[in-house]
């Protein structure tokens, strides 16, 4: 992807326009109160997290040409978004099997409890058991869930063709941005690559691709609450096309 063909200012402005359009979707979701069930809440949480990430980066994206080092901060935030999308597609892969889908959601939900359980007081543990009864067995012990992460996500995205296709695009972006997140042999060079024409070109291309994939996922999530032909959905589809041509 040629750097001169990516209009950072347009990309930033269109990302902002997209986030603003999602405010209408958020209002509809909130008024519908369709976020009570565990799976609905998972979708809503993913929707809000990725939307907030896009809202936080659009000014940095707008200034990528004048401040090339902004690409590092954007890449780190987009890494988080890519992981959220992999988790989303892992759950969606079981969309035709409600019980299996719920089990995958619980696998992700249990991660918090598993790694913070020993920090809770007795009363707090009882409250967690009350709030999340399906995470515990009859004796009150946390059920054994696999450790979630990119490997288990990718291994589980095998049924839904469109989500598999999306995940295969997202995974290498996530892997590349992870080399910035986790300090290692390549991090020093990658940080300074932002200042070289070739390195900056690559970062801008990956950032744009990440934003496009976030937008596609957020449109998909919006369809959980809205019909595809709703006026706001048609507007969102148009903005995504604009982002893709920035």
* Whole-number mean pLDDT: 93
Helix/strand order: HHHHHHHHHH
Counted beta strands: 0
* Beta-strand fraction estimate: under 5%
Oligomer: single chain
Describe this structure in words.
- By secondary structure, the protein is mainly α.
- 72% of the residues lie in helices and 0% in strands.
- The protein contains 10 helices and no strands.
- It starts with 7 loop residues before the first helix and ends with a helix.
- 32% of the residues are buried.
- The model has no long low-confidence stretch (mean pLDDT 93).
Question: How do the helices and strands line up, and which of them pair or pack?
Answer:
Elements: H1 8-32, H2 38-62, H3 70-92, H4 98-116, H5 122-131, H6 150-156, H7 161-181, H8 187-193, H9 197-222, H10 231-244
What is the structure about, briefly put?
Helices cover 72% and strands 0% of the residues.
Task: Give descriptors for this structure.
about 250 residues; mainly alpha
